[in-house]
C-alpha cells in the first residue's frame, strides 16, 4: 500500500475484528462462488472500492463546492467538482447534483423540489414494474402525495401510453414520472414529454435501472426529453451504492436546495469521490462495449429461458433485464427463487403484470446480466445459464442436497471458475 494513502487495510481489520473481516471475505466468496443475476446489482471496480474505503469518509462538507458550512473542504471540493463535471459531460446535462445518498434519497429530493404535500404525481404502478418510491402506500411518496398510477397494456405487456395520456388529462398531475424497476423495454420518452407538455406537468425520469446503458450509449437517453432525471449509481452503471440527479438549468436551484438542506445533511464525500471515479470509467470505450454486451446477453438469456417454457413478458427485452412468467411451467416465483438459490444461482421472484399471485409468492422471476457481463461472459454462456435456470426451476428443489441442486451447482462452479468475479491476482 502507498504510504501516502490510509484506508482499505484488510490485514489490520482482520487482526482487530475477525468476525466482521470474515463477513467481508465470506461475501466475496459468495459473489465468486455463484451466478449473480439480480438485475439491480453489479461488481464495481477495485478503484471505486478504494475511493469508498478512504479518509474522505471523515469529512463534513454540508453545502456545495466553494459554498460549505465547514472549513477544510479544499480537497473534497475537488472531488465533488470532478464528479459534477464528469456526470454532466457523460449525460450531456446542464446540471448534476451528486450528493443523494441513494436512489430513494434522490427521488425524495425530486418530490421536495417540485411537489407540496397532497399534490398529484402520475407514475407507473409497482405491480406493473414501477418502484416503491413512485407513490406506493407504504412509502413517504404515497403517504404524503396523491399518486395516480398507469400500467401496462394487457396484450403487449408494455407501457400503455394511451392510458398515460388519458390519466394525465383526467388528473392534471404536477409531475409525470417514467421509469421503474422491472421494465424490460425501451421507454418512449418523446411520447411522455408530449403528454407532460399537454397537461403542463414536469417530466421526471427515474432512470435508476437503465442509466448505465445510457452512459455507455447502448440505449437512448432520457436527458434531452426530461426536466429531471434521478438515478442510482450502483446498478448497470457499476459505481458505488449511491444516487445522483441531473436536470435542466431551469431546475438547478430547486434540485440543489431539495437535496441539501431539505432532505439530507452532510454529503458522503468518500462516495462522491467514488462516483467521480465511476463516471470516468463510464466514459471509456471499454465501458461502452460492456453496455452493448449487457444488452446482447440479456436478449439471449430471455430468449433461452423462453425456449425452456419460461416465457419472457413483452416477448423479450431491449435492456439489461427480463421478466419471466412461470405459469407455463407451473412453478411460483418464490419456489423458483429458492430452487435457484439452492443451485448457486441468485435471482429474485417478481410479480408479472396482472399477476394472479400475491406479491410475496409471485408468478415470475426477474433476471439481469450486469454482473455476469462484468465477469466477461457472452452469448454462449447465456445459453448455458438459461438451461441451468430452467433445470433448477423445473426439476430442482429448495434443498441444496437435492441431486438436481448439486448437479446444477457443479455446472455453475465450472462457469464461474472460467469467468471469475473479482479474479484473484495471478500469484495468489
Ligand atoms: C433501485 C431503484 C430505486 C432505489 O434505489 P436505492 O438506492 O435502493 O434507494 C429507485 N427507483 C428505481 C426505479 C429503482 O430501480
UniProtKB/TrEMBL annotation:
Alphabetical UniProt keywords: Amino-acid biosynthesis, Cytoplasm, Methyltransferase, One-carbon metabolism, Pyridoxal phosphate, Transferase
Residues marked Plays an important role in substrate specificity (site): 234
Catalytic activity: (6R)-5,10-methylene-5,6,7,8-tetrahydrofolate + glycine + H2O = (6S)-5,6,7,8-tetrahydrofolate + L-serine
Alphabetical GO biological process terms: glycine biosynthetic process from serine; methylation; tetrahydrofolate interconversion
EC supergroup of this enzyme: transferase
Keyword field contains Amino-acid biosynthesis: yes
Lineage: superkingdom: Bacteria
Subcellular location: Cytoplasm
CDD domains referenced in this protein's UniProt entry, alphabetically: SHMT (cd00378)
A Pfam family hit: SHMT
Gene Ontology MF term list: glycine hydroxymethyltransferase activity; methyltransferase activity; protein homodimerization activity; pyridoxal phosphate binding
UniProt cross-references to InterPro entries, sorted A to Z: PyrdxlP-dep_Trfase, PyrdxlP-dep_Trfase_major, PyrdxlP-dep_Trfase_small, Ser_HO-MeTrfase, Ser_HO-MeTrfase-like, SHMT-like_dom
One annotated Gene Ontology cellular component of this protein: cytosol
Pathway(s) of this molecule: Amino-acid biosynthesis; glycine biosynthesis; glycine from L-serine: step 1/1; One-carbon metabolism; tetrahydrofolate interconversion
Residue numbers carrying N6-(pyridoxal phosphate)lysine: 235
EC id: 2.1.2.1
Cofactors: pyridoxal 5'-phosphate
Residues that, per the record, bind (6S)-5,6,7,8-tetrahydrofolate: 126, 130-132
Function recorded in the entry: Catalyzes the reversible interconversion of serine and glycine with tetrahydrofolate (THF) serving as the one-carbon carrier. This reaction serves as the major source of one-carbon groups required for the biosynthesis of purines, thymidylate, methionine, and other important biomolecules. Also exhibits THF-independent aldolase activity toward beta-hydroxyamino acids, producing glycine and aldehydes, via a retro-aldol mechanism. Thus, is able to catalyze the cleavage of L-allo-threonine.
Cross-referenced HAMAP family: SHMT
Complex formation: Homodimer.
Membership in a protein family: Belongs to the SHMT family.
Protein name, per record: Serine hydroxymethyltransferase
Species this chain originates from: Phycicoccus duodecadis
Species classification: Bacteria, Bacillati, Actinomycetota, Actinomycetes, Micrococcales
Gene (name only): glyA
Amino acid at each position: 500500500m502507498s504510504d501516502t494513502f490510509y484506508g482499505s487495510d484488510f490485514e489490520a481489520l482482520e487482526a482487530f475484528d475477525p468476525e466482521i473481516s470474515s463477513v467481508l471475505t465470506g461475501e466475496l466468496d459468495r459473489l465468486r462462488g455463484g451466478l449473480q443475476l439480480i438485475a439491480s446489482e453489479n461488481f464495481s471496480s477495485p478503484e471505486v472500492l478504494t475511493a469508498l474505503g478512504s479518509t474522505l469518509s471523515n469529512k463534513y462538507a454540508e453545502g456545495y463546492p466553494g459554498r460549505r458550512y465547514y472549513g477544510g473542504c479544499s480537497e473534497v471540493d475537488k472531488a465533488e467538482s470532478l464528479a459534477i463535471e464528469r456526470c454532466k459531460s457523460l449525460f450531456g446535462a446542464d446540471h448534476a447534483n451528486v450528493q443523494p445518498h441513494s436512489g430513494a434519497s434522490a427521488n425524495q429530493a425530486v418530490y421536495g423540489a417540485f411537489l407540496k404535500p397532497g399534490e398529484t404525481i402520475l407514475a407507473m404502478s409497482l405491480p406493473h414494474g414501477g418502484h416503491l418510491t413512485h407513490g406506493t402506500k407504504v412509502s413517504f411518496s404515497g403517504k404524503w402525495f396523491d399518486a395516480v398510477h398507469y400500467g401496462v397494456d394487457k396484450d403487449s405487456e408494455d407501457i400503455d401510453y394511451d392510458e398515460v395520456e388519458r390519466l394525465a388529462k383526467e388528473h392534471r398531475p404536477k409531475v409525470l414520472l417514467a421509469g421503474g424497476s422491472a421494465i424490460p423495454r425501451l421507454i418512449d420518452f418523446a411520447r411522455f414529454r408530449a403528454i407532460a407538455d399537454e397537461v403542463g406537468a414536469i417530466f421526471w425520469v427515474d432512470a435508476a435501472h437503465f442509466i448505465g446503458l445510457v452512459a455507455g450509449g447502448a440505449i437512448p437517453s432520457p436527458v434531452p426529453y426530461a426536466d429531471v432525471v434521478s438515478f442510482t449509481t450502483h446498478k448497470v452503471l457499476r459505481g458505488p451504492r449511491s444516487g445522483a440527479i441531473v436536470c435542466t438549468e431551469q431546475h438547478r436551484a430547486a434540485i440543489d436546495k431539495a437535496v441539501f438542506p431539505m432532505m439530507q445533511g452532510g454529503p458522503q464525500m468518500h462516495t462522491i469521490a467514488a462516483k467521480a471515479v465511476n463516471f470516468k470509467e463510464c466514459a471509456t470505450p471499454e465501458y461502452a462495449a460492456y453496455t452493448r454486451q449487457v444488452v446482447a446477453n440479456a436478449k439471449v438469456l430471455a430468449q433461452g429461458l423462453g425456449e425452456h417454457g419460461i416465457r419472457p413478458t413483452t416477448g423479450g427485452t431491449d435492456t439489461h433485464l427480463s421478466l419471466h412468467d412461470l405459469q407455463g411451467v407451473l412453478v411460483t416465483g418464490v419456489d423458483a427463487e429458492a430452487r435457484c438459490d439452492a443451485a448457486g444461482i441468485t435471482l429474485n421472484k417478481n410479480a408479472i403484470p396482472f399477476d394472479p399471485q400475491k406479491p410475496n409468492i409471485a408468478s415470475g422471476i426477474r433476471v439481469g446480466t450486469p454482473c455476469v457481463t462484468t465477469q466477461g461472459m457472452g452469448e454462449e454462456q447465456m445459453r448455458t445459464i438459461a438451461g441451468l435456470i430452467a433445470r433448477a426451476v423445473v426439476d430442482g428443489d429448495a434443498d441444496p442436497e437435492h441431486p438436481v441442486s448439486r448437479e446444477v451447482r457443479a455446472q455453475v462452479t465450472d462457469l464461474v471458475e472460467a469467468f471469475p468475479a473479482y479474479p484473484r491476482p495471478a500469484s495468489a
